[in-house]
Design goal:
The complex is a heterodimer.
Chain A: H1 2-21, H2 25-37, H3 44-47, H4 50-54, H5 58-74, H6 78-91, H7 104-110, E1 119-137, E2 148-164, E3 169-192, E4 198-221, E5 230-251, E6 257-263, E7 271-285, E8 288-299, H8 313-319, E9 325-341
Antiparallel strand pairs in A: 1-2, 1-9, 2-3, 3-4, 4-5, 5-6, 5-7, 7-8, 8-9
Helix pairs in contact in A: 2-5, 5-6
Chain B: H1 2-16, E1 25-26, E2 32-36, E3 42-50, E4 53-63, E5 68-78, E6 83-90, E7 97-103, E8 106-119, E9 130-140, E10 145-151, E11 165-173, E12 177-185, E13 197-204, E14 211-217, E15 223-233, E16 236-246, E17 249-261, E18 266-272, E19 279-287, E20 295-302, E21 310-317, E22 329-331, E23 352-360, E24 366-373, E25 383-390, E26 396-402, E27 407-415, E28 421-429, E29 432-440
Antiparallel strand pairs in B: 2-29, 3-4, 4-5, 5-6, 7-8, 8-9, 9-10, 11-12, 12-13, 13-14, 15-16, 16-17, 17-18, 19-20, 20-21, 21-22, 23-24, 24-25, 25-26, 27-28, 28-29
């Protein structure tokens, strides 16, 4: 009865002792590095087999694949060298060669791979100041010279996609919700009352337009700096989601016309196209960039037509407001985070 | 450094690239809606087309430190409705009708007819506290008054005597002179209940306003409420009038079309509604585009004498002043917009409508302007514009309603030389009234 129990304990002890004696991934890596330096290259693929590498940390894996890659280069097994280089880049897309230290063959092989991100995705948040660019004036009242449209601040947010073309150039696209707001301040000088006081009728309103916007631009990095400064140009195609005008009219020496909300979407063109120019900087952060940008959108198409100048009867007959024909331009300040998405592969050699 | 320069450049472009409302050129559109707002509430009464644009006559309720009074005002606009110069007050009373004097395409002046009200709180007779005179003002083309003429009771009275009141109405410029239509109340005891009788007179066709002839008409002791227009053709004068069954109360009324030989008596006195009880008031009469087709009349009909079943009516009058039987049409701003846009039975009314003004159109039809009074079913608040285009037979071509929360009341509709329709009236919101002028295309649209 006691003998079998003793035998089992001894077996467990031996098993434990053997397990503790196997090399750790770090030890295996050191061994492989020593083997490589001693020139016994044929032994390395066995030492750094897939099972061993799978147990390594990310950095150890990169180092292991690098040793394998160098080994295959010198064993003149290009296919396996390519696979090892690919494994390096798949493990760490941000892997960079050191041209001073790394062998020229390794550097050359690295350069035959696509190592740039294939695209970046992210999110954008910002504010914009919008103002109408009046093309044709239409008024229902005799405006005094100090009547004006004033810019208003609106929000914008949405998704961002970057497609790097090369180190300097990037195609940039967004899908944004943009709020374009502006203030309307229309004054009528009614003349003077019996006391010689000038009487003013004043319409004050805020128009808020909500757009679904697809800006497409081409970015160009203008200098090699840590903050990657760039300029950009392109177009923005916008679809109108909603448009309303909230306004009231005060009349000196008479009762005010209470605030009203006017639905202007039926009088607006649904599609608007703008030209855009921008300047910004990209700060490397985590696995992507934080992008700060200032952007100017110049409305190319009119957001309404002369046909609809008096189409909103309430606005015209209550508040004396007619819709001038205008485009909308805006200046936006935005911040966004874009994350790099890699897909390394062997580049095809140009014939 | 370069990035800063670029950002500054973008900001600069953003600032300088936008035209503001007062920087942009006016839209080259044909139609418009314009409001003319003065220091005091103004009620429009008449509009005239002149070669360079339009001139509007209105009455301002002037408030001074210790008093309020009405004062007529002229407003000049260009063809696009933009106000030209300041308002031009005509001191001394109200204005009800306006005619420009145009020689060879140039305006030499204007003639305005209205009232002058004299107030004497200390008058021994209550009827003399307020005494009205008919006023005719000749105005130069610079809008400066040249001469005032008054038709008034200038008698020096004893303490028990009452002065007559004269009221201006309509004006028409002919090749021979100026025809003025008005009414008057004789200076009799219990004057308030006395009939308001017809009055016609003519002045020379120049700005001196010398009298040519004067005529009053007293028929059955009735009170008349005249249309805002009077016309003169081949020695005949025609207008439309409501006759009150009860003195001063037109809730019981019927329509007549007086047709008068110049300086003479009635040649015709065609009537409609005289055998029934209703409210039946013509507001305007205008000649058809072809004189042979006579005239069109617009006004208000209500089966209920309180006006609560008001419809806009249209009827035709032949060249001799006869109301054409069966030509009367009635329009209701709800019922007429049924499946087919059409006229309705005169007693079918779902909303209170009033007819105010009419013009003939070059296609042989007429355009009518009136109001609807907002109810829970229709209307934007207060009174809205109700516009109807009919053909020569009175069949509806189109109808429109428009307005805001206030009262939009037309006083005139005209076809312009370019075939567009010009509507003038008063827009009252709260305690303030302004004049509006609207030019629509021939289809009643404001699109271009």
């Amino acid at each position: 009865m006691k003998r079998p129990l003793l035998f089992i304990i001894i077996l467990l002890f031996l098993n434990s002792a053997f397990a503790q004696d196997g090399p750790t991934p770090a030890q295996t890596l050191r061994l492989a590095r020593a083997t490589y330096e001693q020139g016994r290259l044929h032994e390395i693929p066995t030492q750094l087999n897939d099972e061993v590498i799978a147990k390594m940390s990310k950095q150890e894996k990169v180092d292991a694949h690098k040793i394998l890659c160098l080994t295959y280069i010198y064993l003149e097994e290009p296919a396996k060298a390519d696979q090892s280089m690919l494994n390096i880049l798949l493990t760490d897309p941000y892997f960079e060669i050191n041209e001073v230290v790394d062998p020229a063959e390794f550097v050359a092989l690295y350069r035959t791979f696509r190592t740039r991100p294939i695209y970046r995705v992210g999110a954008k948040l910002g504010i914009n100041a919008s103002q109408p660019n009046v093309i044709e004036s239409v008024t229902a009242v005799e405006l005094s010279d100090d009547s004006e449209y004033k810019y208003g601040l609106g929000l914008l947010f949405g998704g961002v996609v970057d497609v790097p073309i090369n180190d300097k150039m990037t195609l940039h696209g967004e899908l944004l919700y943009i709020q374009k707001k502006f203030e309307i301040d229309l004054k009528v000088n009614r003349g003077q009352d019996a006391l010689g006081e000038t009487l003013i009728n004043q319409f004050e309103g805020i128009e808020t337009q909500s757009w679904l916007s697809i800006p497409l631009s081409f970015e160009y990095k203008i200098m090699e700096k840590k903050f990657n400064p760039y300029i950009a140009g392109g177009v923005s195609i916008d679809y109108l989601l909603n448009d309303e005008l909230v306004g009231e009219r005060t009349r000196e020496d008479a009762s005010a016309i209470p605030e009203s909300t006017f639905e202007l979407k039926p009088q607006r063109e649904k599609i608007n196209i703008s030209a855009l120019v921008a300047a910004g900087a990209k700060f490397k952060i985590a696995g992507g960039f934080f992008v700060a940008e200032v952007r100017y959108l110049y409305g190319l198409t009119k957001v309404n037509s002369e046909e609809t100048a008096y189409a909103n009867q309430e606005a015209t007959w209550e508040q004396g407001y007619a819709d001038p024909v205008f485009k909308v331009s805006s200046l936006a300040l935005t911040g966004s985070y874009i994350h790099n998405i890699f897909n390394p592969k062997k580049l095809k050699r140009k014939k | 450094m370069r990035i800063t320069t670029i950002i500054i450049f973008i900001a600069f472009i953003a600032v300088v690239s936008c035209n503001n409302i007062t920087d942009a050129d006016p839209s080259p559109r044909k139609t418009f809606v314009k409001f003319y707002e003065g220091p005091f509430p103004i009620t429009a009464t008449s509009v005239a087309e002149i070669p360079t644009g339009y001139v509007i006559l209105g009455n301002a309720l002037v408030t001074e430190i210790d008093t309020t009074f009405f004062e007529s005002v002229l407003i000049e606009t260009d063809k696009d409705g933009n106000q030209v110069g300041d308002f031009h007050p005509l001191e001394g009373g109200t204005g009800k009708s306006l005619q420009p004097i145009i020689d060879n395409g140039t305006v030499s002046g204007y003639i305005v007819v209205g009232d002058n009200i004299f107030t004497d709180p200390q008058a021994p007779q209550a009827a003399n506290v307020i005494v009205s005179s008919l006023r005719v003002v000749a105005v130069g083309n610079d809008f400066e008054p040249i001469r005032n003429r008054y038709i008034s009771d200038n008698r020096i009275l004893g303490p028990n005597q009452v002065k007559a009141d004269f009221f201006g109405g309509a004006i028409n410029l002919t090749d021979n002179g100026v025809i003025i239509l008005g009414t008057y109340k004789e200076g009799v005891a219990n004057q308030q209940a006395a009939p308001e009788k017809q009055l016609l007179f003519a002045l020379d066709n120049d700005l001196d306003l010398d009298s040519a002839w004067f005529k009053t008409y007293d028929l059955l002791g009735n009170t008349y409420l005249n249309s805002k227009s009077v016309h003169y053709t081949n020695g005949k004068i025609i207008w439309a009038s409501a006759i009150a069954d009860i003195q001063g109360d037109f809730t019981f009324s019927y329509v007549t079309v007086p047709f008068v030989e110049e300086q003479s008596v009635f040649e015709n006195f065609s009537q409609i509604g005289q055998t029934t009880l209703q409210l039946f008031i013509p507001s305007d009469i205008q000649p058809a585009s072809s004189p042979a087709f006579g005239y069109g009349v617009v006004g208000t009909y209500s089966e209920q004498t309180d006006g609560l079943k008001g419809n806009m009516f249209f009827l035709r009058v032949d060249a001799n002043g006869n109301i054409i039987p069966g030509s009367d049409r009635y329009f209701d701003a709800i019922e007429s917009f049924g499946v087919d846009i059409t006229d309705v039975d005169k007693n079918t009314s779902s909303i209170v409508d009033n007819g105010e003004a009419i013009t003939s159109t070059s296609d042989g039809g007429f355009a009518l302007a009136g109001t609807l009074t907002t109810n829970p079913v229709k209307g934007k608040g207060g009174k809205d514009l109700f516009l109807v285009k009919v053909n020569a037979f009175g069949d509806v071509v189109w109808m429109k309603t428009m307005g805001g929360t206030g009262d939009e009341v037309p006083i005139s509709i005209r076809e312009t030389g370019s075939g567009d329709l010009l509507v003038c009236g008063t827009n009252t919101i709260g305690d303030y009234a302004s004049v509006f002028l609207m030019k629509m295309d021939k289809n009643g649209e404001l699109k271009n």
